Amino acid sequence: MRALLRKQGVTRILKPLNDVAAEQRRHHEQRSRFLASRGHTLLALLLTLLFAPRALHAQPLAAENRTPQVVPPRAVSADVSYPDGATGAGTVVLELTIDASGTVTEAEVVSGDEAFSATALTQARAFRFEPARRDGHAVAARIRLALEFTPPEPTADTPPEPVAQPAGTPPSPLRPPAVPARQAIEVTVQGERQRPGSVSLRQEDARLMPGSFGDPLRALEAQPGVVPVVSGLPTFFIRGAPPANVGFFFDGIELPILYHAFFGPSVIHPSFIERIDFYPGAAPASLGRFAGPVVAVSPRPFSTEPHASATVRAIDAGGYAESGSTLQSCQPGSTRECPPAAVRAAMRYSYAGLVLSLINDAELRYWDYQVQGRAPIGPRDTLGVLGFGAYDLFRAPQASTKSGAAINFHRLDLRWDHRLGASGRTRLALTGGHDRSAGASTDSSVIKDQSLRLRGELDQRYSQQVMLHAGLDARLDHFGLETSPRRLDFPDYSTLFPTRTDSAGGGFVVLELEPVPGILVTPSVRADVYSSGGVQALGIDPRVSANFQVSRALRFEHSLGLLHQRPNFAAQVPGAQVADLSGGLQWALLASSGVRYKLPTDITASAAVFRSGYFNALDPIGSGRDFTVDRTSIDRRSTISAVGLELMLTRPLSKRLGGFLSYTLSRSTVSLERTRTPSGFDRTHVLQGGVSYEIFPRVRLGARGVFYTGIPELNLEGSPHFESERRGKPFFRLDLRAEKRFRIGRNGYLDLVAEVLNATSTREVVRLDCGEVCRERTAGPVILPSIGAEAGF
Question: Which of 187, 376, 402, 572 has the fewest CB atoms within 10 Å, counting from its CB?
Fold first, then answer.
């Protein structure tokens, strides 16, 4: 595409792609030669090490079959004017960063005449583009744009000024200035390359998942290998991992809980979320200190355009607002624009207690908040702040023997970002945290954690083939325990959670290596030193993951990693961190290998096999399938083994007709002392399917079915243990969703949504106790209906 425009004496060159296409063909030829000569040996070796197929016979493909489905940005409004007082012609090359909404967020002069640079830099901030797209999704991009300035051509109403000529010289005709040679403009699409070993969930697709109530994080339940503790309860066993081994991160900051208590939404407002990276196997070393799967939430990029939304549902209400400003150059004569200042905030409050009070005397409340802002302090420096927190209270009915619980947490992160040219950045951040968990009664025991974390990170791209991500991280936690002699249900709380100060410090190095286009290998390593009560422990975690893009449609994915974490069993309980390091760290060895194939009409088929081992593990819940634990069960360390096959067929739910079908065949066992039994949460078969269809313009219906086989029996004879001979009844539920969207003005909208989880009103068998006779313990039926409206612009 070549665009050569003249207006008001200005010529603009917007991206001749011929040179880029030629460069792509050279890369494809290089890759084909590599695969034809040395590729078979290298790939076979790597795939064997990563439990891949034993041979990968990749035939050279035509260049057009390897071309990524990338559409570069297209200018919608890019008008500039010839500067007052300037003379002659000149060319300015700018480097622009364009976000996913088509807004220019950063601008820098690469080269050009000083007489025109300031005007080009100032006016470029007002340019508008159709954003770059990868596989149909709008993405951020960085481009180089050449602006050629020529003096306005004279018109009949404005004759040209006479030009002095030497005596005796005939006047020369007016000739327009020469047009400089066209220049290739580089386009770099950012942030969309598939991270090895991960599954990426886009916000626009995940919110349409029936049964997720518009919350992208609740859509995790539909992923293969994920089994809820109880249907509808957002706490999971993932590939056999104990729930306390699963890590949650929001913009690099650890989340103590991911969901509000019981059946509530996530603690992060959906409008803050851009993407969810789910690592069911070994996550990158930058996401460390968890010996299990990781969920990493990436916030939506800032926009200089104002946005706002409000949601009202039967159980809660929330709102989101964002605004930004476009600043001039940081210093007079600067050839670089400051990043735009921006701020956004969200909050959600539940009045579910009012609804619950109509049924019984129980009490339920929750709220959460997020606020984020950034401000430039120089051409390459930005200060930022991110704060978020949540609160949950459940007070059981007076007739119940349980009191309930009250938990809350807060995070405040201050960060300084510095750009290292166009290919790198550094970040220095300080995060403070406050966590608290207690019973719902006024005289319950209270667990507190006050934390301070300092981290430094470096991202540096050395070439198209080498990217470095490294960092250092230190954290202090002061744990406190307040006990009540009248309400001490567990007599050994003081030994599990004593008042103390713990520390952890370490660092990591992650390399992204792309020796030829289509092969991405990510080796990484981290080391951490843990200290608690005078006891120290060292964890060294080597990991590697790789993607092999054999063709545009076919990709192999592999990961292998060794992971460590402090011993803990209390999943999603803020402040509850076991103090005992004398028994050593928990550690895990995770391996997986998979293949992904893109079918026509945006359908993707995937298959994966995994093997997970958790050693020296604390999992009293999984080993007993009971939330009532005692000192004996907590002290026991065990080995957990899981192996399985995962299959998935999916088409984006944001399409007019979208859906998915997933199946998991797995086996999880627990080895304790000399016995080996099934895990209490072992589900042999898990099958899920969903569909979303826009039956009329802006009218969408959806349904999701969930089926899994029953839990193993708990044999009460002798020493209680689980057996696979008999199982509880299988479980099936159906979730439904209906949505109608109205357009309001140019950018406004109003969504009306009705949704119900477990429309089939199915009860679930949560225990099968067998002695002389077998008795089923059931839960539910848990039915969660929701009717709400969301409006925004």
Answer: 402
